[in-house]
Amino acid sequence: MFTPPSQFSAKEPTKKCDRPNDLRLVAGSRVENSDFVASLPLAAVAMEFRSFRGRARYFVAVSGIMLVLFETAAGYAVFKLLDDAKLKKADNIWEEFNTPEKAQECLQLVNFKKFKSTSEALESAVDLNDGKLSKTLKKLLKKSAGDEELAVGDAKLGKLINEKLEVPCVHNSAIAELMRSIRSNIGSLLAEHKEEMNAMNLALAHSMGRYKVKFNPEKIDTMIVQAVSLLDDLDKELNNYQMRAREWYGWHFPELGKIITDHVAYAKVIKTIGMRQNAVDTDLSAVLPEDLEAKVKSDAEISMGTDISELDLLHIQQLCDQVIELTDYRAQLSEYLKNRMVALAPNLTVLLGELVGARLISHAGSLVSLAKYPASTVQILGAEKALFRALKTKRDTPKYGLIYHAQLIGQAATAYKGKMARKLAAKVSLATRIDALGEDSNAGAEVGIEARAYLENQMRSEQERIAHKGAPGSHKQKGSYQFKSEVHSYDASADTTAKKSKKRKFDDDEEEKPKKKTKVEEVEEEDSDE
To answer: What segment(s) does the record annotate as region Disordered (predicted)?
Structure first.
Protein backbone atom coordinates (compact mmCIF):
# COMPACT_ATOMS: atom_id res chain seq x y z
CA MET A 1 0.00 0.00 0.00
CA PHE A 2 1.23 3.50 -0.82
CA THR A 3 2.36 5.55 2.16
CA PRO A 4 3.30 9.19 1.57
CA PRO A 5 6.23 10.64 3.44
CA SER A 6 5.64 12.93 6.40
CA GLN A 7 7.54 15.76 4.70
CA PHE A 8 8.19 16.48 1.05
CA SER A 9 11.34 18.05 -0.29
CA ALA A 10 13.18 18.50 -3.58
CA LYS A 11 15.60 15.75 -2.60
CA GLU A 12 12.77 13.20 -2.81
CA PRO A 13 11.10 14.00 -6.11
CA THR A 14 9.88 10.47 -6.87
CA LYS A 15 8.24 7.66 -4.93
CA LYS A 16 7.10 4.22 -5.99
CA CYS A 17 3.75 2.66 -5.21
CA ASP A 18 1.70 -0.40 -6.04
CA ARG A 19 -0.49 1.44 -8.56
CA PRO A 20 -0.62 0.35 -12.23
CA ASN A 21 1.33 3.41 -13.33
CA ASP A 22 4.49 4.85 -11.85
CA LEU A 23 3.67 8.18 -10.21
CA ARG A 24 5.97 10.96 -9.20
CA LEU A 25 5.14 12.86 -5.97
CA VAL A 26 6.02 16.53 -5.81
CA ALA A 27 5.35 18.87 -2.87
CA GLY A 28 3.32 22.02 -3.35
CA SER A 29 0.73 20.79 -5.87
CA ARG A 30 -3.01 20.05 -5.47
CA VAL A 31 -4.87 16.85 -6.37
CA GLU A 32 -8.60 16.28 -6.69
CA ASN A 33 -10.98 13.37 -7.33
CA SER A 34 -8.52 10.49 -7.02
CA ASP A 35 -9.65 6.97 -6.21
CA PHE A 36 -6.76 6.14 -3.99
CA VAL A 37 -7.04 9.27 -1.80
CA ALA A 38 -9.11 7.27 0.68
CA SER A 39 -6.10 5.05 1.33
CA LEU A 40 -3.99 8.05 2.38
CA PRO A 41 -3.91 9.13 6.02
CA LEU A 42 -6.20 12.08 6.83
CA ALA A 43 -3.41 14.64 6.98
CA ALA A 44 -3.13 17.75 4.88
CA VAL A 45 -1.10 16.49 1.90
CA ALA A 46 -0.70 18.07 -1.52
CA MET A 47 0.54 15.92 -4.35
CA GLU A 48 0.97 15.97 -8.07
CA PHE A 49 0.71 12.72 -10.01
CA ARG A 50 2.15 12.40 -13.46
CA SER A 51 2.18 9.31 -15.63
CA PHE A 52 5.57 8.41 -17.10
CA ARG A 53 3.80 6.97 -20.14
CA GLY A 54 2.68 10.44 -21.23
CA ARG A 55 -0.83 10.11 -19.89
CA ALA A 56 -2.97 12.99 -18.68
CA ARG A 57 -1.87 14.97 -15.65
CA TYR A 58 -4.37 15.44 -12.80
CA PHE A 59 -4.46 16.94 -9.30
CA VAL A 60 -5.90 15.76 -6.00
CA ALA A 61 -6.52 17.81 -2.82
CA VAL A 62 -6.68 16.01 0.50
CA SER A 63 -7.97 18.47 3.05
CA GLY A 64 -7.67 16.13 6.01
CA ILE A 65 -9.60 15.81 9.23
CA MET A 66 -11.96 18.59 10.23
CA LEU A 67 -13.40 18.66 13.72
CA VAL A 68 -16.58 20.51 14.59
CA LEU A 69 -17.15 22.16 17.98
CA PHE A 70 -20.80 22.41 18.97
CA GLU A 71 -22.11 23.99 22.20
CA THR A 72 -25.21 22.61 23.92
CA ALA A 73 -26.90 23.29 27.24
CA ALA A 74 -25.75 19.88 28.51
CA GLY A 75 -22.10 20.24 27.49
CA TYR A 76 -19.61 20.63 24.65
CA ALA A 77 -19.55 18.16 21.76
CA VAL A 78 -16.72 17.58 19.26
CA PHE A 79 -17.67 15.86 15.99
CA LYS A 80 -15.47 14.58 13.18
CA LEU A 81 -16.61 15.45 9.68
CA LEU A 82 -16.18 12.27 7.65
CA ASP A 83 -16.58 13.86 4.22
CA ASP A 84 -15.51 17.49 4.12
CA ALA A 85 -16.02 17.71 0.36
CA LYS A 86 -19.68 18.38 1.04
CA LEU A 87 -18.77 21.76 2.52
CA LYS A 88 -17.72 23.10 -0.86
CA LYS A 89 -21.33 23.73 -1.84
CA ALA A 90 -22.97 25.62 0.99
CA ASP A 91 -26.37 25.60 -0.72
CA ASN A 92 -26.56 21.79 -0.72
CA ILE A 93 -25.38 21.16 2.84
CA TRP A 94 -28.91 21.02 4.19
CA GLU A 95 -29.77 18.24 1.74
CA GLU A 96 -26.92 16.13 3.16
CA PHE A 97 -28.18 16.54 6.75
CA ASN A 98 -31.95 16.78 6.36
CA THR A 99 -32.50 13.40 8.05
CA PRO A 100 -30.91 11.92 11.20
CA GLU A 101 -29.58 8.97 9.17
CA LYS A 102 -27.71 11.23 6.75
CA ALA A 103 -26.34 13.29 9.63
CA GLN A 104 -24.96 10.19 11.36
CA GLU A 105 -23.30 9.09 8.11
CA CYS A 106 -21.44 12.39 7.76
CA LEU A 107 -20.64 13.14 11.42
CA GLN A 108 -18.98 11.03 14.09
CA LEU A 109 -18.95 11.99 17.77
CA VAL A 110 -15.36 12.23 19.01
CA ASN A 111 -15.87 13.57 22.52
CA PHE A 112 -18.64 15.00 24.67
CA LYS A 113 -17.87 16.96 27.85
CA LYS A 114 -20.95 17.04 30.03
CA PHE A 115 -21.57 19.83 32.53
CA LYS A 116 -21.65 18.65 36.13
CA SER A 117 -24.32 21.13 37.23
CA THR A 118 -26.45 24.04 36.04
CA SER A 119 -24.07 26.49 37.69
CA GLU A 120 -21.19 25.17 35.58
CA ALA A 121 -23.31 25.50 32.43
CA LEU A 122 -24.21 29.06 33.41
CA GLU A 123 -20.57 29.91 34.09
CA SER A 124 -19.52 28.57 30.69
CA ALA A 125 -22.29 30.48 28.92
CA VAL A 126 -21.35 33.72 30.71
CA ASP A 127 -17.67 33.23 29.81
CA LEU A 128 -18.54 32.73 26.16
CA ASN A 129 -20.75 35.82 26.26
CA ASP A 130 -17.89 37.85 27.76
CA GLY A 131 -15.36 36.57 25.22
CA LYS A 132 -13.56 34.14 27.52
CA LEU A 133 -12.79 30.42 27.40
CA SER A 134 -14.12 28.36 30.28
CA LYS A 135 -12.00 25.72 31.99
CA THR A 136 -14.29 22.97 30.72
CA LEU A 137 -13.83 24.03 27.10
CA LYS A 138 -10.05 24.34 27.48
CA LYS A 139 -9.74 20.81 28.85
CA LEU A 140 -11.91 19.42 26.07
CA LEU A 141 -9.95 21.11 23.28
CA LYS A 142 -6.57 20.14 24.70
CA LYS A 143 -7.72 16.54 24.82
CA SER A 144 -9.55 16.33 21.49
CA ALA A 145 -8.00 18.85 19.11
CA GLY A 146 -4.52 18.54 17.70
CA ASP A 147 -3.25 19.88 14.42
CA GLU A 148 -6.62 19.35 12.79
CA GLU A 149 -8.79 22.27 11.74
CA LEU A 150 -11.67 23.08 14.09
CA ALA A 151 -14.96 24.36 12.71
CA VAL A 152 -16.70 26.83 15.07
CA GLY A 153 -20.01 28.63 14.84
CA ASP A 154 -18.67 32.00 16.02
CA ALA A 155 -15.74 33.80 14.41
CA LYS A 156 -14.83 35.56 17.68
CA LEU A 157 -14.74 32.23 19.50
CA GLY A 158 -12.50 30.77 16.80
CA LYS A 159 -10.09 33.70 17.06
CA LEU A 160 -9.98 33.29 20.84
CA ILE A 161 -9.29 29.54 20.61
CA ASN A 162 -6.54 30.17 18.08
CA GLU A 163 -4.88 32.75 20.32
CA LYS A 164 -5.13 30.77 23.56
CA LEU A 165 -4.62 27.17 22.39
CA GLU A 166 -3.06 27.65 18.92
CA VAL A 167 -5.72 25.47 17.29
CA PRO A 168 -6.52 26.42 13.67
CA CYS A 169 -10.19 27.37 13.46
CA VAL A 170 -12.50 27.81 10.47
CA HIS A 171 -15.69 29.83 10.17
CA ASN A 172 -17.50 30.71 6.95
CA SER A 173 -20.93 30.47 5.36
CA ALA A 174 -20.57 26.72 4.80
CA ILE A 175 -19.70 26.18 8.48
CA ALA A 176 -22.71 28.28 9.53
CA GLU A 177 -24.97 26.09 7.40
CA LEU A 178 -23.33 23.00 8.88
CA MET A 179 -24.01 24.26 12.42
CA ARG A 180 -27.66 24.80 11.55
CA SER A 181 -27.90 21.26 10.24
CA ILE A 182 -26.25 19.83 13.38
CA ARG A 183 -28.62 21.81 15.59
CA SER A 184 -31.64 20.35 13.82
CA ASN A 185 -30.37 16.77 14.32
CA ILE A 186 -28.63 17.12 17.68
CA GLY A 187 -31.14 14.77 19.29
CA SER A 188 -30.08 11.86 17.08
CA LEU A 189 -26.37 12.71 17.19
CA LEU A 190 -26.43 12.79 21.01
CA ALA A 191 -29.09 10.16 21.58
CA GLU A 192 -27.65 9.10 24.95
CA HIS A 193 -28.03 12.60 26.39
CA LYS A 194 -31.31 13.58 24.74
CA GLU A 195 -33.44 13.61 27.93
CA GLU A 196 -30.80 15.48 29.90
CA MET A 197 -30.48 18.09 27.16
CA ASN A 198 -34.18 18.98 27.29
CA ALA A 199 -34.03 19.55 31.05
CA MET A 200 -30.74 21.44 30.82
CA ASN A 201 -32.09 23.73 28.10
CA LEU A 202 -34.90 24.89 30.38
CA ALA A 203 -32.67 25.17 33.45
CA LEU A 204 -29.97 27.14 31.62
CA ALA A 205 -32.54 29.49 30.10
CA HIS A 206 -33.97 30.30 33.55
CA SER A 207 -30.52 30.71 35.09
CA MET A 208 -29.34 32.96 32.27
CA GLY A 209 -32.45 35.11 32.56
CA ARG A 210 -31.97 35.55 36.31
CA TYR A 211 -28.31 36.38 35.79
CA LYS A 212 -29.04 39.08 33.22
CA VAL A 213 -31.67 40.69 35.43
CA LYS A 214 -29.48 40.51 38.54
CA PHE A 215 -26.24 41.78 37.04
CA ASN A 216 -27.63 44.13 34.41
CA PRO A 217 -25.62 47.37 34.67
CA GLU A 218 -28.46 49.31 33.05
CA LYS A 219 -31.20 48.26 35.47
CA ILE A 220 -31.39 51.77 37.00
CA ASP A 221 -31.68 53.20 33.50
CA THR A 222 -34.58 50.83 32.90
CA MET A 223 -36.37 52.19 35.97
CA ILE A 224 -35.99 55.74 34.65
CA VAL A 225 -37.18 54.77 31.17
CA GLN A 226 -40.30 53.11 32.56
CA ALA A 227 -40.99 55.98 34.98
CA VAL A 228 -40.82 58.73 32.37
CA SER A 229 -42.95 56.67 29.96
CA LEU A 230 -45.58 56.19 32.66
CA LEU A 231 -45.46 59.90 33.46
CA ASP A 232 -46.23 60.78 29.84
CA ASP A 233 -49.09 58.27 29.78
CA LEU A 234 -50.49 59.72 33.00
CA ASP A 235 -50.49 63.22 31.52
CA LYS A 236 -52.53 62.01 28.55
CA GLU A 237 -55.02 60.12 30.69
CA LEU A 238 -55.39 62.99 33.15
CA ASN A 239 -56.09 65.41 30.34
CA ASN A 240 -58.79 63.11 28.94
CA TYR A 241 -60.42 62.60 32.35
CA GLN A 242 -60.37 66.31 33.20
CA MET A 243 -61.89 67.36 29.89
CA ARG A 244 -64.55 64.67 30.22
CA ALA A 245 -65.46 65.82 33.75
CA ARG A 246 -65.75 69.45 32.64
CA GLU A 247 -67.91 68.58 29.66
CA TRP A 248 -70.11 66.20 31.66
CA TYR A 249 -70.75 68.45 34.66
CA GLY A 250 -70.95 71.49 32.37
CA TRP A 251 -74.42 70.43 31.30
CA HIS A 252 -75.57 70.90 34.89
CA PHE A 253 -73.46 73.92 35.95
CA PRO A 254 -71.83 75.50 32.84
CA GLU A 255 -70.74 78.70 34.64
CA LEU A 256 -68.44 76.77 36.99
CA GLY A 257 -65.96 75.91 34.21
CA LYS A 258 -65.30 79.61 33.48
CA ILE A 259 -64.85 80.49 37.15
CA ILE A 260 -62.42 77.67 38.07
CA THR A 261 -59.57 77.02 35.64
CA ASP A 262 -57.62 74.55 37.79
CA HIS A 263 -58.68 70.99 37.01
CA VAL A 264 -58.04 69.54 40.48
CA ALA A 265 -59.90 72.37 42.20
CA TYR A 266 -62.77 71.88 39.74
CA ALA A 267 -62.98 68.18 40.62
CA LYS A 268 -62.86 68.94 44.36
CA VAL A 269 -65.68 71.49 44.06
CA ILE A 270 -67.86 68.92 42.29
CA LYS A 271 -67.12 66.40 45.04
CA THR A 272 -68.00 68.98 47.71
CA ILE A 273 -71.19 70.62 46.43
CA GLY A 274 -72.75 67.83 44.36
CA MET A 275 -75.85 69.46 42.87
CA ARG A 276 -75.51 73.16 42.07
CA GLN A 277 -78.46 73.95 44.35
CA ASN A 278 -76.29 72.95 47.33
CA ALA A 279 -73.56 75.48 46.52
CA VAL A 280 -75.21 78.27 48.53
CA ASP A 281 -75.20 76.29 51.80
CA THR A 282 -71.79 74.58 51.26
CA ASP A 283 -68.51 75.81 52.75
CA LEU A 284 -65.86 75.93 50.00
CA SER A 285 -63.16 77.77 51.95
CA ALA A 286 -60.96 74.64 52.05
CA VAL A 287 -60.99 74.41 48.25
CA LEU A 288 -61.36 77.95 46.88
CA PRO A 289 -60.40 81.48 47.95
CA GLU A 290 -63.12 83.82 49.19
CA ASP A 291 -63.66 85.75 45.95
CA LEU A 292 -64.06 82.60 43.86
CA GLU A 293 -66.30 81.03 46.49
CA ALA A 294 -68.64 84.01 46.42
CA LYS A 295 -68.68 83.97 42.61
CA VAL A 296 -69.56 80.26 42.52
CA LYS A 297 -72.42 80.70 44.98
CA SER A 298 -73.87 83.69 43.16
CA ASP A 299 -73.71 82.01 39.74
CA ALA A 300 -75.21 78.78 41.10
CA GLU A 301 -78.46 80.61 41.89
CA ILE A 302 -78.89 81.93 38.35
CA SER A 303 -77.33 79.03 36.43
CA MET A 304 -78.73 78.12 33.01
CA GLY A 305 -77.76 74.44 33.30
CA THR A 306 -80.07 71.48 33.02
CA ASP A 307 -81.08 69.18 35.85
CA ILE A 308 -79.39 65.79 36.35
CA SER A 309 -80.29 62.76 38.43
CA GLU A 310 -78.51 61.40 41.47
CA LEU A 311 -77.19 58.48 39.41
CA ASP A 312 -75.63 60.90 36.93
CA LEU A 313 -74.01 62.84 39.75
CA LEU A 314 -72.65 59.61 41.27
CA HIS A 315 -70.74 58.70 38.11
CA ILE A 316 -69.46 62.25 37.68
CA GLN A 317 -68.13 62.26 41.25
CA GLN A 318 -66.45 58.88 40.71
CA LEU A 319 -64.70 60.35 37.67
CA CYS A 320 -63.58 63.27 39.82
CA ASP A 321 -62.16 60.78 42.34
CA GLN A 322 -60.05 59.28 39.55
CA VAL A 323 -58.79 62.74 38.57
CA ILE A 324 -57.76 63.56 42.15
CA GLU A 325 -56.07 60.18 42.73
CA LEU A 326 -54.16 60.24 39.46
CA THR A 327 -53.00 63.79 40.16
CA ASP A 328 -51.64 62.76 43.56
CA TYR A 329 -49.91 59.71 42.09
CA ARG A 330 -48.40 61.82 39.33
CA ALA A 331 -46.82 64.09 41.93
CA GLN A 332 -45.34 61.06 43.72
CA LEU A 333 -44.03 59.62 40.44
CA SER A 334 -42.47 62.95 39.50
CA GLU A 335 -40.65 63.11 42.85
CA TYR A 336 -39.44 59.52 42.40
CA LEU A 337 -38.13 60.33 38.92
CA LYS A 338 -36.33 63.40 40.22
CA ASN A 339 -34.55 61.42 42.94
CA ARG A 340 -33.56 58.69 40.47
CA MET A 341 -32.17 61.19 37.99
CA VAL A 342 -30.17 63.02 40.66
CA ALA A 343 -28.65 59.71 41.76
CA LEU A 344 -27.92 58.39 38.26
CA ALA A 345 -27.06 61.49 36.19
CA PRO A 346 -26.58 64.54 38.43
CA ASN A 347 -24.75 66.63 35.82
CA LEU A 348 -27.35 65.93 33.15
CA THR A 349 -30.14 66.80 35.60
CA VAL A 350 -28.58 70.16 36.45
CA LEU A 351 -28.30 71.11 32.78
CA LEU A 352 -31.65 69.91 31.44
CA GLY A 353 -33.84 69.08 34.39
CA GLU A 354 -35.03 65.65 35.41
CA LEU A 355 -37.88 65.42 32.88
CA VAL A 356 -35.98 66.37 29.71
CA GLY A 357 -32.94 64.38 30.83
CA ALA A 358 -35.06 61.29 31.47
CA ARG A 359 -36.67 61.62 28.04
CA LEU A 360 -33.25 61.76 26.40
CA ILE A 361 -32.19 58.61 28.26
CA SER A 362 -35.44 56.90 27.30
CA HIS A 363 -35.00 57.83 23.64
CA ALA A 364 -31.39 56.59 23.58
CA GLY A 365 -32.20 53.40 25.53
CA SER A 366 -29.70 53.86 28.36
CA LEU A 367 -27.31 56.39 29.83
CA VAL A 368 -24.31 54.65 28.27
CA SER A 369 -25.93 54.73 24.83
CA LEU A 370 -26.65 58.44 25.26
CA ALA A 371 -23.03 59.03 26.27
CA LYS A 372 -21.86 57.47 22.99
CA TYR A 373 -23.78 60.01 20.90
CA PRO A 374 -21.94 63.09 19.61
CA ALA A 375 -23.22 66.56 20.48
CA SER A 376 -24.74 67.02 17.03
CA THR A 377 -26.89 63.92 17.52
CA VAL A 378 -27.93 64.94 21.05
CA GLN A 379 -29.05 68.31 19.68
CA ILE A 380 -31.61 66.81 17.25
CA LEU A 381 -32.45 63.67 19.23
CA GLY A 382 -36.21 63.25 19.00
CA ALA A 383 -36.59 65.11 15.68
CA GLU A 384 -35.58 62.23 13.42
CA LYS A 385 -38.73 62.43 11.31
CA ALA A 386 -38.21 66.14 10.59
CA LEU A 387 -34.51 65.54 9.93
CA PHE A 388 -35.03 62.84 7.29
CA ARG A 389 -37.87 64.80 5.71
CA ALA A 390 -35.57 67.83 5.42
CA LEU A 391 -32.78 65.71 3.94
CA LYS A 392 -35.18 64.18 1.44
CA THR A 393 -36.57 67.54 0.32
CA LYS A 394 -33.12 69.24 0.53
CA ARG A 395 -34.30 71.88 2.98
CA ASP A 396 -32.87 73.21 6.22
CA THR A 397 -32.46 70.56 8.92
CA PRO A 398 -34.04 71.06 12.37
CA LYS A 399 -32.01 72.88 15.02
CA TYR A 400 -33.30 71.01 18.06
CA GLY A 401 -35.30 68.00 19.20
CA LEU A 402 -36.18 67.02 22.77
CA ILE A 403 -33.56 69.46 24.04
CA TYR A 404 -35.83 72.33 22.96
CA HIS A 405 -37.91 71.90 26.14
CA ALA A 406 -34.92 72.66 28.38
CA GLN A 407 -35.17 75.77 30.55
CA LEU A 408 -32.06 77.40 29.10
CA ILE A 409 -33.40 77.29 25.56
CA GLY A 410 -36.82 78.50 26.68
CA GLN A 411 -35.27 81.58 28.30
CA ALA A 412 -33.14 82.44 25.26
CA ALA A 413 -34.24 84.95 22.65
CA THR A 414 -35.87 83.60 19.51
CA ALA A 415 -32.93 84.53 17.30
CA TYR A 416 -30.51 82.95 19.79
CA LYS A 417 -32.31 79.62 20.37
CA GLY A 418 -30.42 77.72 17.67
CA LYS A 419 -27.02 78.82 18.92
CA MET A 420 -28.00 78.09 22.53
CA ALA A 421 -29.21 74.60 21.53
CA ARG A 422 -25.84 73.87 19.93
CA LYS A 423 -23.90 75.06 22.99
CA LEU A 424 -26.20 73.22 25.39
CA ALA A 425 -25.92 69.97 23.39
CA ALA A 426 -22.12 70.13 23.62
CA LYS A 427 -22.25 70.54 27.40
CA VAL A 428 -24.90 67.81 27.73
CA SER A 429 -22.74 65.38 25.77
CA LEU A 430 -19.79 66.07 28.07
CA ALA A 431 -21.91 65.84 31.24
CA THR A 432 -23.49 62.55 30.13
CA ARG A 433 -20.10 60.94 29.58
CA ILE A 434 -18.97 62.01 33.03
CA ASP A 435 -22.15 60.58 34.60
CA ALA A 436 -21.95 57.30 32.68
CA LEU A 437 -18.23 56.62 32.57
CA GLY A 438 -16.81 58.65 35.45
CA GLU A 439 -14.66 56.66 37.88
CA ASP A 440 -15.68 58.70 40.93
CA SER A 441 -19.36 57.99 41.59
CA ASN A 442 -19.48 60.57 44.42
CA ALA A 443 -18.19 63.46 42.31
CA GLY A 444 -21.58 65.18 42.38
CA ALA A 445 -22.80 67.71 39.84
CA GLU A 446 -19.84 70.11 39.83
CA VAL A 447 -19.32 69.84 36.07
CA GLY A 448 -23.00 70.40 35.39
CA ILE A 449 -23.16 73.44 37.69
CA GLU A 450 -20.12 75.03 36.05
CA ALA A 451 -21.48 74.34 32.57
CA ARG A 452 -24.88 75.83 33.44
CA ALA A 453 -23.27 78.96 34.89
CA TYR A 454 -21.18 79.34 31.73
CA LEU A 455 -24.23 78.99 29.48
CA GLU A 456 -26.23 81.47 31.55
CA ASN A 457 -23.42 84.03 31.25
CA GLN A 458 -23.30 83.44 27.50
CA MET A 459 -27.05 83.93 27.21
CA ARG A 460 -26.95 87.08 29.36
CA SER A 461 -24.19 88.66 27.29
CA GLU A 462 -26.03 87.79 24.08
CA GLN A 463 -29.24 89.37 25.36
CA GLU A 464 -27.33 92.54 26.30
CA ARG A 465 -25.80 92.66 22.84
CA ILE A 466 -29.22 92.30 21.24
CA ALA A 467 -30.64 95.01 23.51
CA HIS A 468 -27.91 97.48 22.46
CA LYS A 469 -27.55 96.66 18.78
CA GLY A 470 -30.82 94.93 18.03
CA ALA A 471 -31.50 91.45 16.86
CA PRO A 472 -29.32 89.97 14.10
CA GLY A 473 -30.36 91.50 10.77
CA SER A 474 -32.47 94.24 12.35
CA HIS A 475 -29.72 96.86 12.91
CA LYS A 476 -29.26 99.63 10.37
CA GLN A 477 -26.42 99.39 7.94
CA LYS A 478 -24.10 102.33 7.37
CA GLY A 479 -24.87 104.34 4.27
CA SER A 480 -28.20 102.65 3.69
CA TYR A 481 -31.05 104.54 2.06
CA GLN A 482 -33.53 106.14 4.46
CA PHE A 483 -36.81 107.51 3.14
CA LYS A 484 -37.71 110.95 4.53
CA SER A 485 -41.34 111.95 4.30
CA GLU A 486 -42.26 115.66 4.06
CA VAL A 487 -45.44 117.18 5.48
CA HIS A 488 -47.37 119.23 2.91
CA SER A 489 -50.06 121.78 3.74
CA TYR A 490 -53.54 121.38 2.34
CA ASP A 491 -54.08 123.01 -1.05
CA ALA A 492 -57.62 124.40 -1.19
CA SER A 493 -57.38 125.24 -4.86
CA ALA A 494 -57.17 121.59 -5.68
CA ASP A 495 -60.76 121.00 -4.61
CA THR A 496 -62.15 121.75 -8.11
CA THR A 497 -60.16 121.64 -11.29
CA ALA A 498 -61.36 122.69 -14.71
CA LYS A 499 -60.89 120.00 -17.23
CA LYS A 500 -59.98 120.76 -20.79
CA SER A 501 -62.86 120.60 -23.23
CA LYS A 502 -62.77 117.80 -25.69
CA LYS A 503 -64.98 119.67 -28.21
CA ARG A 504 -63.59 120.95 -31.52
CA LYS A 505 -62.66 124.62 -31.37
CA PHE A 506 -64.16 127.32 -33.62
CA ASP A 507 -62.27 129.08 -36.47
CA ASP A 508 -62.23 132.41 -34.60
CA ASP A 509 -60.31 130.91 -31.78
CA GLU A 510 -57.80 129.48 -34.16
CA GLU A 511 -57.14 132.89 -35.77
CA GLU A 512 -56.37 134.53 -32.44
CA LYS A 513 -53.30 132.40 -31.99
CA PRO A 514 -50.34 133.42 -34.17
CA LYS A 515 -49.29 130.89 -36.66
CA LYS A 516 -45.84 129.54 -36.53
CA LYS A 517 -43.69 130.07 -39.57
CA THR A 518 -42.69 126.94 -41.32
CA LYS A 519 -39.14 126.20 -42.20
CA VAL A 520 -39.98 126.38 -45.87
CA GLU A 521 -41.17 129.97 -45.54
CA GLU A 522 -38.03 130.94 -43.67
CA VAL A 523 -35.90 129.52 -46.43
CA GLU A 524 -37.84 131.54 -49.07
CA GLU A 525 -37.39 134.75 -47.08
CA GLU A 526 -33.66 134.20 -46.89
CA ASP A 527 -33.52 133.69 -50.65
CA SER A 528 -35.42 136.92 -51.25
CA ASP A 529 -32.98 138.88 -49.07
CA GLU A 530 -30.10 137.66 -51.06
So the answer is: 467-530
